[in-house]
Amino acid sequence: MVGEEGAFVLGWDEVLTEEELSVTLKVLCMSEEEFQEYKEQDGWEDDTDEEENSFLSNESLSRLKHPCKKLLCDSVLLTLQSYRSDLKADQDLLNNKEAFERLSRREQQALHVRYGQKRILHQLLQLIQ
């Protein structure tokens, strides 16, 4: 379900791996009976209903069912805990010109990437809480 990399790709405006995350949330939030039925049917037949097509845009994230929101929220919090620093510490380092310039070019780039990832995760938390 998750693909080879085992991760979902989030953007500023939408989930870029929308189908994978949508299916994963549905399956993980199913009852045992629903899951058995899902397995017997080899998944869902062509899900073309309009709600499914916009399931994970930023506008629709707040409309997720509570179990899906909780699962997604817990996942985001676990991901944020895996970083060595928090969003504020990275922002402070970016704003401190002297400290930032002491970093190697590679460390500066990594800081920018890490800071962007954390901002997206915090935005997602705000959308689902």
Summary keywords:
set domain protein methyltransferase, domain 2; 129 residues; 8 helices; elongated; 64% helix; methyltransferase; single chain; mainly alpha
Structure description:
The structure is a single chain. This protein has one domain: Rubisco LSMT, substrate-binding domain (set domain protein methyltransferase, domain 2), CATH 3.90.1420.10. With 129 residues, it is mainly α. The protein has 8 helices and no strands. About 5% of the residues have low confidence. The longest helix is centred in the C-terminal third of the chain and has 24 residues. One of its GO terms (molecular function) is methyltransferase activity. Pfam families: Rubis-subs-bind.
What's the Cα radius of gyration? 18 Å
Give the terminus-to-terminus CA distance: 25 Å
Name of the level-1 CATH class: Alpha Beta
Q: How many distinct folded domains?
A: 1
Quaternary status of these chains? single chain
Number of strand elements: 0
What is the chain-wise order of helices and strands?
HHHHHHHH
* Unreliably modeled segments: 48-54
Helix content: 55-70%
CATH superfamily heading: Rubisco LSMT, substrate-binding domain
Structural class category: mainly alpha
CATH architecture: Alpha-Beta Complex
Most strands sheet = none
**What is the mean predicted local confidence, pLDDT?**
85
CATH topology: set domain protein methyltransferase, domain 2
Protein name: N-lysine methyltransferase SETD6
Subcellular location: Nucleus
GO cellular component, one term: nucleus
InterPro entries: Rubisco_LSMT_subst-bd, Rubisco_LSMT_subst-bd_sf
